[in-house]
Amino acid sequence: MRIDPRDALFIDFDGTLIDLAAHPSAIVVPKDLANIIECLFDALGGALAVVSGRPIDEIDRYLGLPARIPVAGVHGAQLRTGSGMLEVPVVGDELIAIRAAVERFARCHPALFVEPKPVSLAVHFRADPSLADKVYAELARLVEQAPDLKLMHGHAVCEIKPVWASKGAAIERLMQLPAFRGRRPLMIGDDVTDEDGFRVALAAGGRAIKVGQGPTLASERLAGPADVRRWLAESLESLSRTDA
After folding, report:
1. What percent of the chain has pLDDT over 90?
2. Which residues contact 76 (CB under 8 A, 6 or more apart)?
3. Which of 105, 165, 188, 195 holds its CA 20 to 30 A away from the CA of 224?
4. The pLDDT of residue 30
5. Can you give the C-alpha Rg of the chain in angstroms?
6. For residue range 171-203, what is the model confidence (pLDDT) as tens digits?
């Protein structure tokens, strides 16, 4: 089933639109991807948003989308609405202290990559998956002392973020915008962090599509990012015929 003209589309980035890479900076973005997204945005009357764990400035750098396209970054901690207004919360003292402790921990394990983000902190262990339990245990210990922060476990990464930030909460806020209001949310994602978005979309009578393997709330699946891109292109063609 392709995108319906009545849908509001929410798309994850890493592992959904583009293939995962050994390092976050090593991703390859297909040349036609941004154009497909922008055309879908127009075909859906502005009811499309990219919902990612990356900061919004990275999404902009990789996709080059116009500011009129909404983006939720850092798992919903950042939000840019269709007006181009960008919300970036202030980093709290708890996270600043944890960053220093995590960087000390990572110096003992050179295979780790510590990625500071606006209001969150990610630790990647894709270069040495055997470190997964050790990373999770250390970050869990640090978060125990910070009640306003939460630990997430994704694909070869652990991330600390504010407890109030989630992709589901971002979708709920975006659904209040005029372009989204009254539509059926459709969320596409590949990771544990996307499950909050799936939950919100399904509760609102919408759809959820899981990319790849693993347990999920979603009732639909696509095998990988190449299949997502193909599905988006086919949906765009179908929507264009509907408008003709």
Report:
1. 84
2. 51, 165, 166, 167, 168, 169, 170
3. 165
4. 96
5. 18
6. 999 999 999 999 999 999 999 999 999 999 999
pLDDT at 244: 55
Q: How far is CA 243 from CA 3, 4, 132, 183, 235, in A?
A: 13, 12, 49, 17, 12
User: What are the structure tokens assigned to 106, written together?
Assistant: 């990572």
- For residue 169, what are the CA distances in angstroms to 62, 101, 180, 206? 24, 29, 15, 15
Task: Report the 3 state secondary structure along 194-243.
Answer: HHHHHHHHHHCCCEEEEECCCCCCCCEEECCHHHHHHHHHHHHHHHHHHH
* Catalytic residue check, 194: no
Share of the chain above pLDDT 70, in %: 98
Given the residues 12, 14, 190, 194, the one annotated as active site: 12
Q: Tell me how far apart the alpha carbons of residues 227 and 238 are, in angstroms, rounded to a whole number.
A: 16
